[in-house]
Amino acid sequence: MIDDQGGQVGVVSMPEAFRMAREKGLDLVEISPTATPPVVKIIDYGKYKYELQKKAAEAKKKQIVADLKEIQLRPNIDEHDLATKLKKVDQFLLEGDKVKLVMQFKGREMAYAETGMKKFRSILETIFQLGGVVEAEPKMMGNRIISILNPDKAVIQKRLTLMQKQNTNKNTDNV
Fold it and tell me: What is the pLDDT of residues 62-79, one digit of tens each?
């Protein structure tokens, strides 16, 4: 048992623990039920609940949420269109989001699925250089090739610091 000041009282019977809590006008809260013997503490239950809620909110605030962004491609995509899509992938990765890359085949394009897979893998190589890491290998699902990419935190961080240095240099040149 732990008293309201945080000091250890020792092993106490339940009726004695309840009596001690009542005397102080506080509650007896089981802190660690799996321990042998279970650990109980004399505290104000409302205050205890509030502190737990506050800790949970703080943990949630520190949690980073990565959205899943989807980029759709076609097997016969033009180079300029591909460059535009890759810029968007790069932007998503720099923001820390996951990217789902989808290449969809229509009609007779399905006969050239193997060529499409080669093109898809070359696109993944380009994205790897931008700081993307393959989370889910490319798979053919029906008439689509799908792969999921994560940002490589180390590569992204290097690129962001390099971009900041370049911006700082540009700003000093303009002065």
Answer: 777 668 899 999 999 999
Rg (CA), the chain: 29
**What does the alpha-carbon distance between residue 155 and residue 151 come to, in Å, rounded to a whole number?**
8
Contact 101, 132 (CB under 8 A): no
Task: Give phi and psi for 135, each to the nearest 5.
Answer: -90, -45
In whole angstroms, what is the distance from residue 80 CA to residue 93 CA? 20
Please tell me the predicted confidence (pLDDT) of residue 17.
Answer: 86
Q: Please name which of 100, 150, 107 lies closest in space to residue 130, comparing C-alpha atoms.
A: 150
Measured distance CA(73)–CA(87) in Å, rounded:
13
Superfamily of domain 14-60: Translation initiation factor 3 (IF-3), N-terminal domain (3.10.20.80)
Tell me the C-alpha distance between 64 and 54, whole Å.
Answer: 18
Q: Which two tokens stand for residue 14?
A: 């339940």
User: If one looks up domain 68-165 in CATH, what number appears?
Assistant: 3.30.110.10
Task: Please state, in angstroms and rounded to a whole number, the distance separating the CA atoms of residues 159 and 165.
Answer: 10
35-67: per-residue pLDDT in tens? Answer: 888 888 888 888 888 988 999 998 888 777 668
Q: Of the segments 72-86, 127-141, 160-174, which one has the largest average pLDDT value?
A: 72-86
